[in-house]
Write a structure and sequence with these properties.
By secondary structure, the chain is of the alpha/beta class. It folds into 3 domains: about 190 residues, FAD/NAD(P)-binding domain, CATH 3.50.50.60; about 120 residues, FAD/NAD(P)-binding domain, CATH 3.50.50; about 110 residues, Enolase-like, domain 1 (2-Layer Sandwich). It is about 30% helix and about 25% strand. The chain contains 14 helices and 21 strands. The strands form 5 sheets. Strands 1, 2, 3, 4, 5, 6 and 16 form a 7-stranded mixed sheet that branches. A 5-stranded antiparallel sheet has the order 17-18-21-20-19, with helices on both faces. The longest helix is centred in the C-terminal third of the chain and has 19 residues. Bound molecules: flavin-adenine dinucleotide (FAD) and nicotinamide-adenine-dinucleotide. Flavin-adenine dinucleotide binds next to helix 1, strand 2, helix 2, helix 3 and strand 4.
């Protein structure tokens, strides 16, 4: 590649206008810096158009219907099934019809300059942007370049897959009609959420997971979600890896070990994601081309000298969730501005506004299946692996008065992971209907390192689901 010289100067160049890039750019600008934000597709990123928002829009009507069926009195009033066309239409309103003009307006109103095109690095502080109209812009960043390019799906090595039409998260969240039959490959978050969404919308779904479901979570989470999927009618096959896939007469044929064939209209491949770095020309700044970009807690890319290259969000591989990426973006944007003003040195104090310290201790996540899985911090196994003196406390959620009011036959479980040496909560998992909104209480307890004896005085209201906190602390022995 020929050497790129010169270029228009700006304080900060942010590559990628997903939720993370937008937040980082905004914070740096609020700190007094001029910012150019570069985007090659839609401003708002994967989350707004093909991930968080449309997937939840597809799931929640089914959950509302199931919740009504669990509530005698309301159940009798519900006589029909989901209106799939209405669900898909509402999903499309959440993606603004895959039109980013409202987000573009926000970028302008926030005082940021938007440059449409594909950005690549061209040596220290230099970014080249190739626009769709064939023009090229060269930018030189006085203070920092921040890479916020997100992630792309990983496709497994599977015979026949490259030649067989398949969905990734984009088609799974953007489809305009309900497939008659759908095979989902994978057992992670995308797989379980999309399997349930499409089954409840009328598809016959088969889920093929090579091990269990939701591998990173407490084991009971995957077990309860698997049971719920099966109760919905999903054919859940764990411990199964297909031998090959093929297209036959407009359908997809998945061949399992032993020769059994699963035939479907669509195949969704949901086998994980990797850092989106392919077009970034990372080698021009001395980095390997395959990512992820490893950063310190202020977002500085560790392997690049001079401290000018930052990264945040999925591309760093730290905590691939919108809220956690935005948190890292706030820290990095503030750190860039503070360093430009001479107010911050190389080291960032842990738990200061310039450090994404929670990434290592308290990442909250909700899996929006029915039942929901809401977790934060360490699982029991992870706490043990870190050498903590662990005690795990479990409670059945159905025994909590608030839960029994929400649904007849409420099924769910809660777990606290306690560090016995410090007598603080280092992890929590709730599985059940409506537990997502419980999660922030646990996040506050973990981040605040609230001693159990003090947590005892946080009295949950009666009769709410939050009373599970009281049951957990009683079970612990308080
Ligand atoms: C199906 C699904 C559901 C999900 N649901 C949730 C959820 O409910 N909650 C949650 O917290 N997380 C969820 N996630 C994860 C979430 O979508 C990501 O963590 C989040 O989008 C990461 O934000 P980001 O800004 O880092 O990356 P992205 O959102 O991927 O944005 C990156 C942007 O960079 C642009 N870009 C890339 N390369 C270049 C380049 N060279 N030049 C210019 N622009 C470039 C891309 O076009 C994109 O717009 C979900 C993910 C999936 C797949
Ligand atoms: N509600 C949410 O917060 C939410 C929703 C969806 C996605 N996300 C995030 O998006 C990211 C991507 O999700 P995902 O579900 O694609 O990834 P994941 O890492 O959660 O799950 C990947 C799954 O694919 C399986 N797998 C991997 N390679 C395979 C192979 N070769 N053959 C068969 N199976 C294979 C794994 O065993 C695992 O079950 C995750 O980090 C997730 O946290 C979050």
């Amino acid at each position: 590649m020929s050497e790129v010289v010169g270029g228009r100067e700006v304080d900060v160049v942010v590559i990628g206008a997903g939720p993370v890039g937008e937040n980082l750019a905004d914070r740096a600008h609020r700190g007094g810096l001029s910012v150019v934000l570069v985007e090659r597709e839609l401003v708002g990123g994967e989350c707004s158009y093909w991930a968080c928002m449309p997937s939840k829009a597809l799931l929640l009507p089914g959950h509302a219907l199931a919740a009504a069926h669990r509530l005698p009195g309301a159940a009798q009033a519900v006589t029909g099934g989901l209106d799939a066309a209405a669900v898909l239409a509402r999903r499309t309103t959440f993606t603004h019809g895959w039109d980013d003009s409202s987000q573009e307006e926000w970028v302008g109103s926030a005082g940021l300059e938007l440059l449409r095109g594909t950005a690549r690095l061209a040596g220290e502080r230099r970014v080249v942007v190739d626009a769709p109209d064939g023009t090229t812009t060269v930018l030189t960043a006085r203070r920092a370049v921040a890479v916020c390019t997100g992630s792309v799906p990983v496709l497994p090595r599977l015979e026949g897959l490259p030649e067989t039409p398949h969905w990734t998260n984009r088609e799974a969240t953007g489809a305009q009609e309900v497939p008659g039959a759908l095979v989902v490959l994978g057992g992670g978050v995308v797989a379980v959420e999309m399997a349930q969404a499409w089954q409840r919308l009328g598809s016959r779904v088969t889920l093929l997971a090579r091990s269990g479901l939701l591998g990173g979570a407490e084991p009971f989470a995957g077990e309860l979600v698997g049971a719920a999927l099966a109760a919905d009618g999903v054919d859940v096959r764990t411990g199964t890896s297909p031998e090959r896939v093929a297209q036959r007469g407009g359908q997809v044929v998945v061949t399992l070990p032993g020769g059994e064939e699963v035939v479907a209209d669509r195949l969704l491949v949901a086998t994980g994601r990797r850092a989106a770095v392919d077009t970034l020309a990372l080698e021009t700044v001395g980095l390997p081309g395959d990512g992820p970009l490893e950063v310190d807690d202020s977002g500085r890319v560790l392997a690049v000298p001079g401290g000018w290259l930052y990264a945040a969000g999925d591309v760093t591989g730290r905590a691939p969730l919108t809220h956690q990426g935005k948190y890292a973006a706030r820290a990095a944007g503030d750190a860039i501005a503070a360093r430009a003003a001479g107010d911050l040195g190389d080291q960032v104090p842990a738990w200061s506004r310039y450090a994404a310290s929670a990434d290592a201790a308290a990442v909250p996540q909700v899996v929006f299946t029915d039942p929901e899985v809401a977790s934060v911090g360490l699982t029991g196994r992870e706490a043990g692996e870190r050498g903590l003196d662990v005690r795990v406390v479990d409670v059945e959620l159905g025994a909590v008065a608030g839960a029994s009011l929400v649904a007849d036959g409420y099924t769910g479980r809660a777990r606290l992971v306690v560090d016995e040496t410090r007598r603080v909560v280092v992890g929590a998992t709730f599985v059940g209907q409506g537990v997502a909104e419980l999660l922030h209480s646990a996040t506050v307890a973990v981040v605040g390192e609230v001693p159990l004896e003090r947590l005892w005085h946080a009295v949950p209201s009666y009769p709410t689901l939050s009373e599970v906190w009281l049951r957990l602390l009683e079970e612990y022995g308080l």
